[in-house]
Amino acid sequence: MNIHNTAEEKIIAKVTEIFEAIAAGGNAEGICTCDQCRLDTVCYVLNRTPPRYIVSNRGAARTETDPLVRQQEGADIVTLAHEGIKQISHNQRPHFSHRGAAGKAVQEEAQPVFNIPTIVGRMFNGLDFSPMSGIQVELRRGGELVVMKDYNWQNPCVLVPNTEGAFSFWPVPIPAQSGNLHENFEFTIKAEAPGFEDLNHFFQIPVISDSQFSNTFSMSRIVKLPDLYMFPPGGEDFQGV
Ligand SMILES: [Zn+2]
Questions:
Q1: Where in the chain are the domains?
Q2: How far is ligand 1, taken at its centre, from the CA of residue 182, in Å?
Q3: pLDDT tens for residues 114-133?
Q4: How many helices (H) and strands (E) does the chain have?
Q5: pTM metric for this prediction
Q6: Cα 61 to ligand 1 centroid, rounded to whole Å
Q7: Which superfamily, per CATH, for 113-230?
Q8: C-alpha count within 13 angstroms, C-beta hemisphere, residue 17
Q9: 88 alpha carbon to ligand 1 midpoint, in Å?
């Protein structure tokens, strides 16, 4: 069984479509169309759109929604996407190369791999619910820092003030024996900040191996973590609920 947010697919498709249109139209405004800026835009919209969950065995299931509601949702996504593109283009992450598809860490090869989804989340101060900034967030697996898909992604990821506590990781694919294998991958989000207790958030991502490396952002999945909260030492322990 799979619980699936169909709003997510719609948002990825719409944002990809808008970025492709910008690129095809000559991009007079000089908007950065790299994968990181695309993902930041997807997250911007995702964090402002109500989720629409369905339960499915395969991705093909559909929700029965009033066409008028669906149309309105589509329009809202487009408005938010344009708003997000503007915001993100004016506040680009300074430590990313914004190199688009260039600078790949891994060659595209026809070998079976687990394409690990993009992992996104937000980190807040648990005392006043303000977004954390200026701190490093790490993605770890088996105690090690996870290698990212290309140089546009950084691990540790630094929380910058204008991204509202948002972090994102796109791990490099993991080699598989063959396609169609099911495996659970365990990860930890780790964050340290002066005056706060260390945060360790464990989670699992089930992945089915593919026959080849997927380098196309629009085809990739996104795993959105629950909002994470950091607290000073000695406080109550609740996070990510
Ligand atoms: Zn960029």
A1: 2-90, 113-230
A2: 33
A3: 989 989 999 999 999 999 99
A4: 3, 13
A5: 0.68
A6: 33
A7: Immunoglobulins (2.60.40.10)
A8: 10
A9: 8
